[in-house]
Amino acid sequence: MHHYFDQQNTLTSVYLFDTNVAGFGGCFLVKKQIQGGTVKIGTWDSIHVVGADLEKQDGKARYRVTSTVFLKMLASNHDAYGELEIAGNLSRSREETFTMDTRAQKDGDDFHIANIGKLIEQNETEIRQEMDSIYINKTKQIVNTGRLKEEYMTKDEKISFHNELAAAVAGLKKL
Question: Which of 21, 53, 70, 127 could bridge to 62 as Cys pair (CB 3.0-4.6 Å)?
């Protein structure tokens, strides 16, 4: 996990436990603080809940990873524009089965951690791309459109624009 998440301003915790079935469960927690550039302060908190079922007779390891990311940022492009707070969360689940060869059965811990790590990275990459698209780019588009257009509009155009903006914000809330 240290290769995927840089070590600066990042805290990670991993908890693994036995379950009633052949296998184990786990929880991987990541807290990353973001600062600098247009981000005054931000946090990326992710929770990855893992279930691993190990079927000895068929030599398969089945993993279920459910990832939830909470993002919160306080951003400012310039003092004249003020501050903008963005907050949201997304969840993704992924399930995959791997065949445990003789090396994997002998050195199981490394095999399991590598597979679980891969699934966590896939979930987080997908979540990061969606958050960038939904929360960040859409918010920038709406804010910048409002800043640029409003100065040059007639009264009727302003009313129409504000109604359109309210509808866009309501649409974001539904996501």
Answer: 53
Q: Which two tokens stand for residue 83?
A: 């501050």
Cα gap 68→49, rounded to integer Å: 9
pLDDT value at position 49? 97
Burial class (CB in 10 A: 0-12, 13-18, 19+), 46: buried
Give the integer Cα–Cα distance in Å for 100 and 19: 20
How many other β-carbons are positioned within 10 Å of the β-carbon of residue 167?
Answer: 9
The answer to whether the CB of 114 falls within 8 A of the CB of 103 is no
pLDDT value at residue 151: 61
This prediction has a pTM of 0.71
Three-state secondary structure call for residue 48:
strand
Residue carrying the six token digits 């590598």: 114
CATH 2.60.40.10 fits 10-131, yes or no: no
3-state secondary structure of 106: helix
- The predicted structure's pLDDT at residue 5: 56
pLDDT tens string 6-24: 556 788 899 999 988 888 9
Kindly list the strands in the beta sheet with 10-18, ordered across the sheet, starting from the edge strand earlier in the chain: 10-18, 23-36, 39-55, 60-75, 84-99
Whole-angstrom Cα distance, residue 58 to residue 97? 11
Query: Is residue 171 helix, strand or coil?
Result: helix
